[in-house]
Amino acid sequence: MRCLFLCMALLLSACEVDVQQSAPNVRVDQAMGGQHDAGFARAFKARTFQFPQDHGAHPEFATEWWYLTGNLQSEEGRRFGYQLTLFRVGLHPGKVKQDSTWRTHQVYMGHLAVSDIDDTRHYSAERFARAAAGLAGARAAPFEVWLGSWSIRGGSETFPITVSAQQENFGLSLQLHSGEKPMVLQGERGLSRKSATPGNASYYYSYTRLPTDGELRIGDTLYTIEGDSWMDREWSSSALDKDQAGWDWFALQLDDSREVMFYQLRNKQGGAHAFSSGKLVEKNGRAITLKPDQVKLTATRFWLAEDGTRYPVDWRLQVSDYQLDLQVQALIDNQLMDHTVHYWEGAVDVTGSHTGKGYLELSGYDNRE
Q1: Of 38 and 315, which is predicted with more confidence?
Q2: Residue 271's pLDDT band (cuts 50, 70, 90)
Q3: Which among 121, 213, 282, 333 could bridge 303 via Cys, Cβ 3.0 to 4.6 Å?
Q4: pTM of the model as a whole
Q5: b/e map of 184-198 (b: 16 or more CB within 10 Å)?
């Protein structure tokens, strides 16, 4: 379950741009609401996924993303978290008039972040480009998504996936391997419903444990690293309903070779929404649906951002049916993605009945209009 941004075209010139603090703010409930052009397709029912085609873009839908997160460790034992997300936003449905190489109906946005756990520093960057003149785009065979010099590339068999993203003061050069876990279709055979309103849903699949190695850079220092990544793919044309404000999303890789994904949708009164959902992925790859009445989430500690927003960065996650009683704790309090849409996303440790690592995303808490 991931962040979307709909006003990006206002920020674009004819070339790729990096944005630090100049972009306008967009509320998550506005960005993820069902106000897209009626000409875009919507996710009404389960579909048959086709690969490698579905690794590529789906321009008939308004929005989609390729989302990578992971926990990594250097040869010296230094710990890092990372996020690289490439988003596609459709400005208008239908084919574009091919009278100029600059004309396009598609905009790409990227978020890159590295959490240096030992140094308690969080680095992040945002950039945009139109899908024209080779500045940004996606294709299925061979698999590739790129936004300027940031890229996620696969071979003829998809894996291994090469990730490359560099900024002035930090960057990533990684290889993600297929590992032993199969793809997981989230929701109902890949249809992830976000509310009772027809079409407020996405098509959503995940790779929940991808062995990862490569290099990570902080300043001029290169670290040889290894660890595990998580990849989410999702596309839709509307998601949040009128009564929904945001979500709390957990992607946890347990040391017993299981994974837990759960997103708790929140209503505008702060309560859990009935369409919250998740999966427990067993050691053999079998995915078990987690319903909202099976999962008990309790925020146990909050971090106060400079703007006065309180983010619940520590949690207790309980699934009694599967003997899970997990303490999820932020490795750095300030892992705020302070960009066009403000949200908190960062590396976490898991203790309690089971140990592990993971990523947590908190959206819809921003106090600013």
Answers
A1: 315
A2: confident
A3: 333
A4: 0.91
A5: bbbbeebbbbbbeee
